[in-house]
Design goal:
Number of helices: 15
Distance between the termini: 50 Å
Strand order of the largest sheet: 3-2-1-4-5-6-7
Shape: elongated
Structural class: alpha/beta
Number of strands: 13
Helix content: 40-55%
Strand content: 5-15%
CATH superfamily of the largest domain: Glycogen Phosphorylase B
Largest sheet: 7 strands, parallel
Length: 388
């Protein structure tokens, strides 16, 4: 399994997993592999511990999260999050009562439905973070929903019938201290290890290789870029997802792009990856938030992105990046070529983008807003109980 990102691990004191403590937040995250929601849940747990917020994670055994918690010495509850029979729900509810849990916070679909059942069957207050814009019946049953963008919030209200009084947009935090000031020596070492010359222009696409991320669109746009900039190289960062990844690799061969494309797989040190890029390209057909774009801008790297979903809240066209229609290789290649041709444009977009990220995605603001939601839910529960 991937190791803890080295720019994160040393920042946080580890606790003995056997240590008994009275946890207040039960943080439940489903999913065995790695994705943005899992990354967010992990970093939220670690940040809470660093800030003195008592939190007990619940996650799938032998998955990415459990391995991270094991390596960091973080106490957690391994659970398959089975919803039927009710045995696992009863077990987790008993742990919550024993540990005096004040609130449950869930991430990813199985965890969301598990959390709603904890509320309905055992009376636990539940907050759920919407990392995607799926239409699912359970959303309106939570005590509170946190949307990761304005577009997600509108979707939750319109399609999942979440009331206005029980939803709030809280952007992901971008930890600026990790994404700024990577030593040039580390960057040069990484680029050399990838097989790049000092004069190469490096494009980067970061995210699991899947149809939604639409790496194939970027691969098809690359020949036009190479005709004007033969020294352009593309790094594709992320886990392969089945048949789609195979299709992408076949397209690279058919277009004879093997010398220009590097498949880096999963990478833990995303700040280092970002520092090596001249331009970050985000090509999804759907994106609830757009973490990759935010992290690139935090690193001072200009962004070309699809005009979809939450990306439009991060990348403001012509101000903090360039937006193009999704699934349009010609428009994408035109935008990339324009960016590479204009150093002043790259510098301005990167500068304005970094300022926007620092303003909108501050870690301290995120924590304060999240704790305010917790207090609102717990306070409402206590008020209702007092009224009865």
């Amino acid at each position: 399994m991937p190791a803890i990102p080295r720019r994160h691990a040393s920042e946080y004191p580890a606790r003995n997993r056997a240590t008994q403590m009275s946890s207040q937040v039960l943080m439940i995250a489903s999913g065995r592999g790695f994705n943005g929601a899992i990354k967010y849940a992990y970093e939220l747990v670690v940040d809470f511990r660093r800030q003195g917020v008592e939190v007990l994670p619940v996650c799938i055994p032998d998955g990415w999260l459990s391995h991270q918690f094991d390596a960091a010495g973080v106490e957690y509850v391994p659970s398959p999050l089975a919803r039927y029979p009710l045995t696992e729900l009863k077990r987790v509810a008993a742990i919550a009562r024993e540990r005096q849990i004040s609130i449950v916070h869930t991430h990813n679909s199985r965890a969301h439905s598990f959390g709603v059942l904890l509320k309905l069957l055992h009376g636990l207050p539940v907050v759920a973070t919407a990392h995607q814009r799926h239409i699912q019946l359970h959303w309106c049953l939570n005590d509170y929903v946190i949307a990761n963008s304005d577009v997600t919030l509108r979707s939750m209200r319109r399609f999942n019938f979440v009331s206005k009084s029980r939803i709030r947009r809280i952007y992901y935090p971008i930890r600026d201290r990790f994404f700024h000031g990577v030593p040039p020596a580390e960057m040069n070492t990484a680029r050399t290890a990838w097989g790049f010359a000092p004069t190469d222009r490096v494009l980067g696409c970061v995210g699991n290789v899947s149809p939604r991320k639409s790496q194939l669109n970027l691969i098809r746009a690359l020949p036009s870029v190479l005709r004007e900039f033969p020294n352009v190289r593309l790094v594709i960062v992320g886990d392969d997802h089945g048949a789609y990844a195979k299709t992408c690799r076949q397209a690279v061969e058919e277009l004879q792009l093997q010398g220009a494309v590097r498949w880096l797989g999963h990478q833990d040190d995303i700040p280092l990856v970002m520092s090596c890029l001249d331009v970050c390209v985000c090509t999804p057909t759907e994106e609830a938030f757009g973490l990759t774009a935010a992290e690139a801008l935090a690193s001072g790297v200009p962004v070309v992105a699809s005009r979809v979903g939450g990306l439009r809240e991060i990348v403001i066209d012509q101000e903090t990046g360039l937006l193009v229609p999704p699934s349009d290789p010609r428009a994408l290649s035109t935008a990339i070529t324009r960016m590479l041709n204009d150093a002043a444009l790259r510098e301005r977009l990167a500068r304005e983008g970094r300022q926007r990220v620092r303003r909108l995605f501050r870690e301290a603001d995120h924590t304060a807003q999240l704790l305010d939601v917790y207090q609102t839910v717990v306070g409402s529960r206590r008020h209702a109980a007092h009224g009865r």
